[in-house]
Write a structure and sequence with these properties.
Elements (H helix, E strand, L loop, with lengths): L2 E8 L4 H12 L4 E7 L14 E2 L9 H4 L7 H7 L7 E6 L13 E6 L10 H7 L5 H21 L5 E4 L2 H11 L3 E3 L18 E6 L7 H11 L3 E6 L2
Length: 236
Amino acid sequence: MKIAIVCEWLVTYAGAERFLEELIACFPEADLFAVVDFIEPKDRHFLHNKPVKTTFIQKLPFAKKHYRAYLNWMPLAIEQLDVSAYDLIISNSHAVAKGIITGPGQIHISYVQSPMRYAWDLQHQYLRESGLDKGIKGYFAQRLLHKMRIWDQRTANGVDYFIGNSQYIARRIWKTYRREADVIYPPVKTHLFKPAGKKENFYLAASRMVPYKKMDLIVESQQKIKVNQTKFFSTA
């Protein structure tokens, strides 16, 4: 069986990439596809040194730092990846990876970290916090996200089996695509965690510094309950 693994952008090593690392370990013979790949050679250990087949966005100006600026081109880009020679396609998706084009003789399993947050239920928050909720820029941003929602919902028909990383994400998949999703929780390296003998008066938050993670709300809540400090660890 020929297997292809499809993901979005490879630019850092955080939650989705840690899952990808385990996915590759489960299917070491699989080929890897991505919209862009800007992982430095010294940091490619989690990819098991696999080559990555990328899209035309990889070569566009300033894509390395501003790949998100090409969001409106990503549906086209993901559809240009040719996986017609594979029997099984596994998409690791939080944006456009699930839109990969497959045929009737292929099985497409999409492990969804989340339906596109900024296009669906968190659209207004993203636009507001990006200063794109009004004016001419706001108009074009809202129009872009409207088109992304239409594309996102249409391409759900190309997925044979949805898997969510939690019961909450499974509910979001149903709400967005009206498709049932099984739940497989992402792997956790439990050997890295040991119970502490003494509990100190602080909270630890580990997260990407993005709006929907609500890090500002964490800070505000800790101020109200008057803990000594809150320790933050950014994964990106």
